[in-house]
Specification:
- Helix content is about 25%, strand content about 30%.
- The protein has six helices and 14 strands.
- The strands form four sheets. A seven-stranded mixed β-sheet has the order 3-4-5-6-7-8-9.
- The longest helix is centred in the N-terminal third of the chain and has 17 residues.
């Protein structure tokens, strides 16, 4: 459905507007959300629902199982005719992602992950980045602060979930953010990266759990296990400064 309206290098065949400043959404986001809600809830009626494009139902907090969905992560790339967007679906049990499917139709890729069973991309099993040295780590970014000049920039899709799959596919070593982010942005990619051998935490190195009353976390670190502590150490001062200013 999403791919049918997407236009390579051009504005998609859909209505686009801004939910908030610099936060675009389209008719297709809404249509994919509605389709997934119908189909996933039919598969597992006992699971609650939380997605970017649906009004939050607090009754989800009483549910053991939860579908956690971003119908199009990376809408900015979608509406600009770039391929760095995906459909992101996670099944969460007791706050932990246990099954995930991510589809990047414009790139012809589908990731499937199950807790303890590994992850595949287009049916090929993935082993993610195993980098041990922090200096030289590949980071999907437009640019980097001078403090991080020892890192290496690689191409950056708009979707944070797609950037996390780059760690799972060993095309990046580190993805990091220092801002508040939503659970639906990262839940599926969390399991994809983890099942490929990666580590996923918030910006302070703490575990991320899902289906919280306020479904947000401060920052993200997704990386090879051998560089996780170095990433936490590198970001600690900046993270603390940002948190103390809010």
């Amino acid at each position: 459905m999403a791919l049918a309206s997407w236009r390579d290098g051009a504005v998609p065949d859909t209505k686009v507007w801004e939910k908030t400043k610099n936060n675009p959404v389209s008719d297709i986001d809404m249509a994919v959300d509605a389709l997934l809600a119908r189909r996933l809830q039919a598969i597992l009626p006992e699971a609650a629902w939380l997605s970017e494009e649906t009004v939050d139902d607090p009754s989800r907090l009483n549910a053991r199982l939860l579908w956690l969905v971003d119908p199009i992560d990376g809408t900015r790339d979608y509406v600009r005719g770039r391929s760095g967007w995906c459909v992101s679906v996670a099944l969460v049990a007791d706050g932990i992602p246990v099954f995930a499917v991510m589809a990047a139709p414009a790139q012809g890729k589908v990731w499937i992950a199950a807790s303890g069973e590994g992850v595949t991309c287009n049916n090929e099993r993935l082993v993610g980045s195993m980098r041990q040295n922090f200096a030289g780590s590949r980071v999907p970014a437009d640019d980097l602060p001078r403090l991080d000049s020892d890192l290496v920039i690689v191409d950056k899709p708009n979707s944070i979930a797609m950037r996390m799959t780059m760690v799972a596919c060993d095309r990046a070593d580190l993805v990091a953010t220092l801002r508040w982010g939503n659970e639906w942005d990262v839940a599926a990619a969390h399991l994809v990266a983890q099942e490929a051998g990666g580590v996923v935490t918030d910006a302070l190195g703490r575990p991320i759990t899902y289906n919280k009353p306020e479904p947000i976390d401060f920052g993200l670190i997704c990386c090879a296990p051998g560089i996780h502590q170095a990433a936490v150490d590198r970001l600690a001062g900046r993270a603390s400064a940002l948190l103390s200013s809010t």
